[in-house]
Amino acid sequence: MSKSFLVIGSVLSILLCICAQSAHGFSWGEIFASKKNVTVVNDLDPYITLKIHCRSSDDDLGEHFLGYQRGFSWRFKVNLKQTTDFWCDSSWTDVNGKLYQKPFTAYNANRDWMRHCHNNCVWRIRQDGGYYGDGYDKQFPSAKMFTY
């Protein structure tokens, strides 16, 4: 008898969580159903090339050299455990020859869904740091996520 109350209680808790999340404008199904798109854009300077190397635990996306206002994009689906992460190493040399390097988490399923972007996630790499948002600055305005 107590096991059935435990099961019913667990099911009701899950349903309440789903309803509460749906009331906030999304459902867990949305997280997994659509592909995510992440773009890294060089907003440094017309004379500076940005080098990035991005990877996840499953995929190495290789090194990319981005000219000013150029970007590199990739698409993927979040895994069922919501542990999907992509990391990038970024580096660039300023006009005076000083090297700047910074690793950053380009996508984290738990961090990004409600706070930074839904399906379109854009990094703008500037001389003072990395800015992250939905690329449109409407629902998720770009926020400074790291400093060089």
From TrEMBL:
The keyword Secreted applies. GO terms for biological process: rejection of self pollen. It is found in: Secreted. Keywords: Secreted, Self-incompatibility, Signal. Residues 1-25 form the signal peptide. One of its GO terms (cellular component) is extracellular region. Its main location: secreted. Belongs to the plant self-incompatibility (S1) protein family. This is S-protein homolog. It comes from Papaver nudicaule.
